[in-house]
Amino acid sequence: MQPRAEVAPTPTEEIVAAPSRIASIDIFRGLTILVMIFVNDVGEVKGLPWWTHHAPPDANYMTYVDMVFPAFLFIVGMSIPLAMGRRKVSESGLKVLSHILLRSIGLIVIGIFLANLYKMDPQLSGIDRTLWGLLGFAGIFLLWNVYPRNERRKAFYRALKILGAVMLAVVLAVFRRKTESGEVAWLDFSYWEILGLIGCAYLGVSILYLLLGRKTWTVVVAFVALTAMNAVSTAGKIGWAGRVLRYWPFEAGLCAITMAGVVATKIFFDQNNARSFRDKAVLASVYGAVLFAAGLALLPLGISKIGDTPTWGLFSASACTFIFLALYWIADVKHRTSWAAFVKPAGSNTLLTYLLPDVWYVIPALVALGDRWNAGAPGVIRAFVFTAIMLAASAVLTRWKVRLQL
Questions:
Q1: Domain span at residue 231?
Q2: Cα–Cα distance between 199 and 271 in angstroms, integer?
């Protein structure tokens, strides 16, 4: 995709630059958070069709629910070139790398905290589970809140961040649980929750992008290589070598989905070209179709979110490409964004919105409110209401200047 000269665009072929915040990306991110909150809550409702839940571990199919996590990875990938491009203007490569490492560590730490939230033994830990969870969330909020730029209160805000770090460290230090064999143990690191997995994929793809530079062909090659690594590993024909390909130095399947988002950004927002919307739409459509065709070709390896198969990732990336193309046309070409105002806070204050349902779930009295509506249509309505409450809470907290950023 080499830069080329463009004739003046017609009104239907606007050339859209990449501003500091891109409406379609924020809307895509916000809609993904909305769907995530809904499917997580409706997943506990009984008596619903199979397609409203994650596919079981032994299944050879995927549902729309299985596409939520890949959508997160895809949008993380789309954001990497934009954020890194802005940082490279004023920061050294070493400083950019340090930011990547700190952000990844933050995501992993929060992910491990969330993964252990309901495994804590109050008697062994010496603290009530609800109090333990709320103190942990308070530490996260204090540590990663974006405070106002006020020189007079700079020391105070730094003290709040330090307090948050200490609170989180103490909460994790006192944690104790019982293993399946009855032994006392510390944190369970076997699963890092969605945020931790996103942190790992973000780390791997960001480092690759930092090393590969801004050329489109290099990220395309990286995406193909990651997909091939995942396919070879999934095939399981080379034993331990396949596991090495899949998990070292980064998880190939999740990184492939994230890198697919990087390629999408090259199509829509590459600063080295000035494509018309028509050209972007054609390229994006071809890209989405190729992803789908590749998924079909690798279908014999199975299709499973739990198994992290290539087809699952490719089908999800293909769907995300077409969804984003539609959002880009509506929000950035036609400039129609008022319809998505309800997800604006979730799209721009994503980490806060992501954590709010877990804050709710950790309080037994709040959970008990929904227990009586846990089956059939009433359960679905409850999930819609719960999602609306979380989005409203995010909007209120955002207005109150509570904003989390790693």
A1: 23-91+214-399
A2: 26
